[in-house]
Amino acid sequence: MTPGSTAHEITAWLLPTAGLDDAMIAAWRPLLDAGEQARADRFVFDRHRRTFVAAHALLRLRLAEACGVAPAALRFEPGAHGKPTAWIGGTPAPLSFNLSHTEGLVGLAVTPVAGCALGFDVEALDRRVTLDVADRYFRPEEVAWLHGLPAAAQAEGFLRLWTLKEAFIKATGDGLACDLASFWFEPLLPRVHFTPALPERAEAWWFGQRLAGGFVAAVGLRAAGSPVSVHWRELDPTGRAAFR
Ligand SMILES: CC(C)(COP(=O)(O)OP(=O)(O)OC[C@H]1O[C@@H](n2cnc3c(N)ncnc32)[C@H](O)[C@@H]1OP(=O)(O)O)[C@@H](O)C(=O)NCCC(=O)NCCS
Question: In the prediction, which pLDDT does 4 show?
């Protein structure tokens, strides 16, 4: 199967982290390889370390299950701007994924085809927000939409846009090397538009968004016009279901 040749199925896992106990984190930590454990050790705040361990344990468990291998058989290689891909020995794992974490939630999107441009982003809806970032970096169409919202709806509107824009720059893997004003969203559809500065076709892209449980998530895929469906899987907040 090649990207764009058939319907795409994405599974999006959402793991709340506020209820994870020390035993769960301790059980997950050995799933991480030496490099991941060293990264975990570098966090200053314990809550950031716990989120990182939960994210990378969830990543290894879900990808290993999908590939039918042990979690330790997976190796992650960063691309030019840091986007990781999964490998089993010298072969790309037969899937594409993207990970996201924020205060209180870990998110992981997976589709069972290697080499897809898949991006995922999660943010907490109670995150402190001002429109300054949008005013400075977003497209005028997005800025006008945001400022046209009632004041009470602007923070949610901003986070809708933010997660969609992150899902795009994470799907391509360019991250913040991509000019945030070279594309824009109609967030409620959601639909992307590109300026001539970006050699992309809007028709090739599919985006989905979900607001639930105090979080907003956005997923994006260069699906080349093929149908896309997303299965949202909210894991129980103790994290025990993620272990199965
Ligand atoms: C790195 C970046 C791609 C995403 O960062 P982020 O939103 O802070 O982080 P998220 O939790 O959503 O995603 C991090 C994960 O994405 C993956 N990732 C790293 N670089 C990536 C890249 N270039 N493209 C896609 N995924 C990437 C990794 O798995 C990473 O997890 P890890 O650090 O535990 O290994 C980049 O866009 C960035 O630095 N953003 C900062 C936030 C910002 O200013 N956004 C503008 C809003 S429109």
Answer: 45
In angstroms, the CA 83 to CA 119 distance is 10
CB 83 less than 6 A from any atom of ligand 1: yes
Cβ 100 under 6 angstroms from ligand 1: yes
99 within 8 A of 108, measured Cβ to Cβ: yes
Distance CA 97, CA 107 (A): 11
Asked if residue 121 is part of any domain, the answer here is yes
Is 19 within the bounds of a domain?
yes
pLDDT tens readout for residues 45-88:
999 999 999 999 999 999 999 999 999 999 999 999 999 999 99
Structural domain boundaries, residue 144: 8-243
Q: What is the CATH number of the domain that holds 41?
A: 3.90.470.20
Tell me which amino acid residue 154 is: Q
Token pair recorded at residue 58:
């969830």
* Residue 75 placed within a domain: yes
Of how many residues is the chain composed?
A: 244
What's the structural domain count of the chain? Answer: 1
137 near 181, Cβ under 8 Å? yes
**How far, CA to CA in Å, does 35 sit from each of 82, 134, 240?**
15, 35, 24
Q: Is the CB of 134 under 6 A from ligand 1?
A: no
Domain-embedded: residue 1: no
